[in-house]
Amino acid sequence: TTGDTTLDVGFVNTASCQSAITYIDGDAGILRYRGYPIDQLAEKSSFLETSYLLIYGELPSAQQLAEFDQRLRRHTLLVEDMKNFFDGFPRDAHPMSVLSSAVSALGTFYQDSHDPHDPEAVEISTIRLMAKLPTIASYAFRKSQGQSLLYPDNDFNLVENFLWMTFGQPTEQYDLDPDLAKALDLLFILHADHEQNCSTSTVRLVGSSEANLFSSISAGIHALSGPLHGGANSAVLEMLGKIQSSGGDVAEFVRKVKNKEDGVKLMGFGHRVYKNYDPRAAIVKKTAHELLAKAGQNPLLDLAMELEQTALEDDYFVERKLYPNVDFYTGLIYESMGFPSNMFTVLFAIGRLPGWIAQYREMITDPATKIGRPRQVYVGESERRYVSAEQR
Ligand code: SDX
């Protein structure tokens, strides 16, 4: 028995690992980070505080949070040589490819702190990655736009600095929109961890070989880029755009999904674990309304809501327990913030980073939480004798 749930032996045998970080009850639609319900953290916490909670296991005191904030601010700058790295990519390189490669390259500047069994090395790598990933993400975006790269301004906190480096101009004072920073901070909290999803399991599996934190996170970023995982937020916007350009006929689109025509899926719907409404999606939907309503009528938001309502009332989706997941509304919000769709999954990665780091640290310090070497059920040929080419 663990927490609120008694895991039957069958489930335990199929569970990839045990962990004390994030708890999900997929049937009840419950999500907790270190025991704190996601709706309480969304309402009362910050991304910085939630990151501290996930990584160190407890909510910080005001002093601990201030120290954590200051440590991160002092590590936001990239080694100057890293800038050349961004010149090496084609301008249309996907920012997720740049992000994963740059994180791997970043690690090469800190080879003296790669030892996963050296707590100080893991701690400084934690701080460097948390502080520098937003800088790398903004550089990937700026390069793709042909814009100059901006140094971090450490009068800003992590989220504000990311917005400055992404949307600021070197020639003028940055007019930070506090509502925008608050909404992005909330979205990062909602993405911060999610137990053993595809990318987190990747971080754990790569890290279980004692690969360093930078390499393990780089692998996790690659896993997240897939359209069935972190790439779904961009795919939702593409789906809504196609429905809109074909006349906005939601019923016709839903008919195609149900008939599995051309492999069409209702992106942003369904989940490996949630067989109920994803608790994060409910919070994102509310934020979408508040933010987008402010920016004026958004036809794609109206379309998304009509699509959601249609699906929630349709037996095909109800029988398969297909509900909106965290990706269904996030793309609409990111687009309203001024991000192009190829940056949406990069934002997911910034949010997920503290979870990846927390899970890597847990796995390294507590072997009982290690993902063992996955086994298989062999369904191939039984033993056969070799025959020469002439006899085949
Ligand atoms: C994330 O794991 C995590 O925690 C991930 C994540 C995180 O925080 O890390 O929550 C983030 O990745 C959210 C998921 C984002 N992906 C999408 O929105 C892509 C669209 N969703 C599907 O690809 C799908 O729902 C999955 C992969 C997310 C989950 O698939 P399931 O639950 O394992 O379902 P399945 O693939 O076994 O399909 C079961 C049935 C099938 O129909 P039948 O063969 O029974 O007729 O449901 C259908 C599927 O065709 N189905 C869908 C569907 N998802 C499943 N049909 C239409 N649209 C969909 N989205």
Automatic annotation (TrEMBL):
Biological process per Gene Ontology, one example term: tricarboxylic acid cycle
Entry annotation: catalytic residues: 271, 327
Pathway field: Carbohydrate metabolism; tricarboxylic acid cycle; isocitrate from oxaloacetate: step 1/2
PROSITE patterns referenced in this protein's UniProt entry, alphabetically: CITRATE_SYNTHASE (PS00480)
Keywords: Transferase, Tricarboxylic acid cycle
Glycoprotein as UniProt keyword: no
Domain of life: Bacteria
InterPro entries reported for this sequence: Citrate_synth-like_lrg_a-sub (IPR016142), Citrate_synth-like_sm_a-sub (IPR016143), Citrate_synthase (IPR002020), Citrate_synthase_AS (IPR019810), Citrate_synthase_bac-typ (IPR024176), Citrate_synthase_sf (IPR036969), Citrate_synthase_typ-I (IPR010953)
GO cellular component: cytoplasm
Reaction(s) the record says it catalyses: oxaloacetate + acetyl-CoA + H2O = citrate + CoA + H(+)
The keyword Transferase is assigned to this record: yes
Example GO molecular function: citrate synthase activity
CDD domains listed in its UniProt record: EcCS_like
One of the Pfam families matching this protein, by short name: Citrate_synt
Signal peptide per UniProt: none
Family label: Belongs to the citrate synthase family.
PANTHER family: CITRATE SYNTHASE (PTHR42871:SF1)
NCBIfam families: cit_synth_I (TIGR01798), PRK05614.1 (NF004126)
Stated name of the protein: Citrate synthase
